[in-house]
Amino acid sequence: MHIHILGIGGTFMGGVAQLARAAGHRVTGCDSDLYPPMNQQLAAAEIEVVEGYDAAQTSFEPDCYLVGNAISRGNPLLETILDRALPFTSGPQWLAEHILRGRWVLAVAGTHGKTTTSAMLAWILEHAGLNPGFLIGGVPMNFGASARMPGAGSPFFVIEADEYDTAFSDKRSKFVHYRPKTVVLNNLEFDHADIFANLDAIETQFHHLVRTLPRNGLIVANAGAESLARVFARGCWTPAERFNDPSGWRVEGSEADASLRVLQGDELVGQTTWQLAGEHNRSNALAALLAARHAGVPIARGLAALTRFENVKRRLELRGTARGVSVHDDFAHHPTAFAATLAGLRSKLGPARILAVLEPRSNTMKLGVMKARLAQSLAESDLVFCYAHALGWDAAEALAPIGNKAVVDDDLERLVQRIAAAAQPGDHVVVMSNGGFGGIHEKLLAALAG
Predict the structure, then answer these.
(1) How many CA atoms, within 13 angstroms, populate the side-chain half-sphere of residue 140?
(2) What angle do CA 388, 389, 391 make, to 5 degrees?
(3) pTM value?
(4) Does pLDDT of 400 surpass 80?
(5) Which helix (H) or strand (E) holds 123?
């Protein structure tokens, strides 16, 4: 069939586009702001992308329109589709019906760590020769693509299971469509303030997911998350293994020797060395190992895979070095993620200076819901630079608790110059945003190079 995708530049819809193309369909799409890495992925898949949402795109006469959840009523192309009663569906619904049906789906859900854990899980299965398909909200460096179909004869498909809403016409979380056999529940806290009124509303969606799981499936859940305990208290019909459990599955390690050790109680089950830093990544690794174990991969073999795991683009990705200053890119966009990213880098770097550069770009951050937590989440940094363009709240006031460590500016070019002026040889700049951030990485490297 020919499908035309509205909002094709998003990590999820762009992944769906690549899967549809690989499955033999003709795929076109449209968006208004494409940036790396998704624009590069779509180009590599030879998928035609139209700029904007002009109603004239109906002349393509596709068999079906897939409508991304970033598309709202009032969008000219969507309104024309509705007025003319043209066939449309959501990305998750199409994915469930055309790609996931009949497969062993391994889904990774949670407020934080979904992308990294999904990438780890897919790589462990790949390393074990199971040739999984996957759809991940980022580009795993071991694969070089955010999505692919399973290999011949492989039933396995790993999917990053997002709790964000499905589409303008379906306000359930995306993950209720996926019908996984194995599910990871990494953590659960308040986010997406634009669609969820409170944490209880998100817990309800997670319980909808739990209700879809079969009795012969497996839930891999973070024992340290009280919110997940409340989800299970509503009812659970599927066996569960818990990680971060002092008397059960747990993980240890250190940046000093790059170690990763898996324990069950006091028994050392296996160990390896690897490239990633931070307690949060060790926890992600254990979740991935347990999920892969359900698919038949022993812990020892999973650890051998993690030795060769190369992380995901935009997860503390080094973008370049100029004048002795290293510039990293990270997708963090929530105070918990800011804190975890900076703590992991601090444990790796020791006393070296860290300059945190953030763009409060997510809908939750733009609404100011998390502003009271912002200053504390940046505690591991030596200097903080905040891009405050189009915010509805006072970033300088929110960062006042950290005093003169913080610089706030609503002009991107001026902010770049202020960062470059403050940076010293040996510093590490960490740019944190869930968007393109106006190409700040290249601008900063150019400014540093002089």
Answers:
(1) 28
(2) 70
(3) 0.84
(4) yes
(5) helix 114-127
